[in-house]
Amino acid sequence: MGVASILPKTDTMLELLAPIFGRIARNDAFSLPGDIGNESRVLVIDSGDLTEVLFFAPILSHLKEKYPDIRVTFLVREGNSELVRSMSPVSEMISYEPAHLSLSSTTYFSLLKRIRSRGFSVVFLLGSEFSFPRSLLALFAKARVRIGYSGEHSFPFVNCEIRVSTPSLYEGVKCRTFLTAMGLSGQEPLPAWSLPEQDIRWAKQLVHFRKPEKATRLIAVDPGMGKGQHRLVDESLTYLVSQVCRRLPSKVMVLSNNLDAKRLDLFKSRIRGDLVELEPKNAKEEIALLSCADLLLAGNTDYFHFAVSMRIPTIGLFTRHDTDNWLPKGTPWVQILQGVTGQRLSLEEFNSKIDTLLHFTGVE
Question: What is the pLDDT of residues 23-51, one digit of tens each?
């Protein structure tokens, strides 16, 4: 069934149910930032996207600094749960499998009941794309303040709607609009996201055993699907990896959180280079290993944006489907190559961007 046939049915269903949702919704008057404080019980509902967790983490850290006694519950996809568990502002975590967020799932209705009974006062609904199951969870939380991005169906699920006036604003910066919506300053510096030190030490030890020579560079590669739902073909990406390995004494580490094991193994088999074989158990362990990389080659993937945040020298291999809102600005450790359908990536341009990053990092 195509998108064209699904969306009208969704619109019709929501129109029919709108009066019921209006009665369920808590419509008390509220003021911001006055109704957020030390006594607040906060629910964060993820969008299923790991990058949104990265972008929202500094917002939570800022709130925890401002209101030390605030309690934060994070509803997160199981695959991302270990990363959220490591975030110090989070008091409690509720994890789910994607199949659970379905109206035909008994687990979903148990989740609705559980959320409703917790007495949340504030809900943050992440993600700019409308999701009926997640929006219904926000509504059933019965929180006085429900904050999320504005959209065609956002109200009454969200009663404090965020409108972004600059569509090209980098998604990592756009999350600051949550602070503006709360009546807090969106301009002051936010706490930087970081992994716990013990995870960094674990990754460094693991890498050192496989790459004891400091002069050997660790090249991380993420062949996964990008935010535009497209990816560079394996042959092109492995060719670019080989070009880097020819120029630098290197070992290659392949990481991806959205390719299945079969496709990942196929990609690895095509690499002509010295592979570092590791078996991270979850996204948190992969990101810890990524933090040890000297260079990342990736499309517009989750790990691309984590590398941007961790200031890892990065080549972003974007497609024409990757819009400007995914382009980080003011990041000299990041170089972007945006492909055009039917045209081969310029090896000369690629090497030039590598040279720029080597100059930035002081690598000869």
Answer: 777 888 899 999 999 999 999 999 999 99
How does residue 221 score in pLDDT terms, banded at 50, 70 and 90? very high
| CA dist list (Å): 281 to 51, 90, 294 | 18, 22, 22
Kindly report the CATH class assigned to 197-361: alpha beta
Right CATH for 17-181 from 3.40.50.2000, 3.20.20.450, 3.20.20.300, 1.10.3720.10: 3.40.50.2000
- Is the separation of the CB atoms in 158 and 135 below 8 Å? yes
Question: Which regions of the chain does DSSP assign to beta strands (E)?
Answer: 41-45, 71-77, 92-96, 122-125, 145-149, 160-162, 217-222, 250-254, 295-298, 314-318, 334-338
Residue 5: per-residue pLDDT: 39
Residue type (1 letter), 354: I
Instruction: Determine what percent of the chain falls in helix, strand and coil, rounding each to the nearest 5.
Output: 40, 15, 45
Cα 170–chain centre separation: 13
**Checking phi first, is residue 362 left (phi over 0); if not, alpha (psi -120 to 50) or beta?**
left
Cβ atoms of 211 and 81 within 8 Å: the answer is no
Helices 302-309 & 50-66 angle (0-180, nearest 10): 40
Say how far apart CA 327 and CA 177 lie, in whole Å.
Answer: 18
Domain chopping of the chain, boundaries: 17-181, 197-361
Q: Is the pTM of this model over 0.85?
A: yes
CA distance 200 to 131: 35
